[in-house]
Structure prediction request, 198 residues.
Amino acid sequence: MAIALAADALVSLADLKTVLTVSGSTFDDILNFMINAASEGFQRIVGCNLVYATRTAVTVDGNGRTRLRLPHWPVVSISALTENDVALTENTDYYLNTKFGMLIKGGVSVWSTGLRNIVATYISGYKIDATVPLLPYDIRQAIIMQAGYWWKQMDKEDWGQISQSFGDGSSITLYSIIKEDLLPAVRKVAEGYHRPRV
Prediction:
């Protein structure tokens, strides 16, 4: 069965194949799978979907504070925002920190406390092609590094193993695409993009 690149993949198949110097389409399904797995694991650590998309009628709980975060970031633009079913105007009722998806209440007021009482429709995320806002290079490198690592492991006898023991009683731990988490360097990049708590 063919494996397509997921909508939230963080690098293109062409970019990965260029780095790995893989030509032809024989291994496209495997490489797509690896990109999808690396992208999913990376975004799980970050805490949100990083791919450019329109988020429609996203609900957020009001927190009784001056600042409130949207679930996806960076925010490119907000087309509609309501609080308790009342439409709000940007740069009057609220201000937007695009980098962190932060909504800052205007004046001296605070966001009213409530369950899903803030509703936003907005565009957020990065693009993986050569347009703005372009996915940062360190994220792209991290995904390629992870997928590339899994790719290189396919040629080794330890593919899928977690540890290997030797006759002298010693053993080593091996990476595995099946059970191993993201590489430490990849995880470090993802943690650098994790949204800080308010």
In short: DSSP finds four helices and nine strands in the chain.
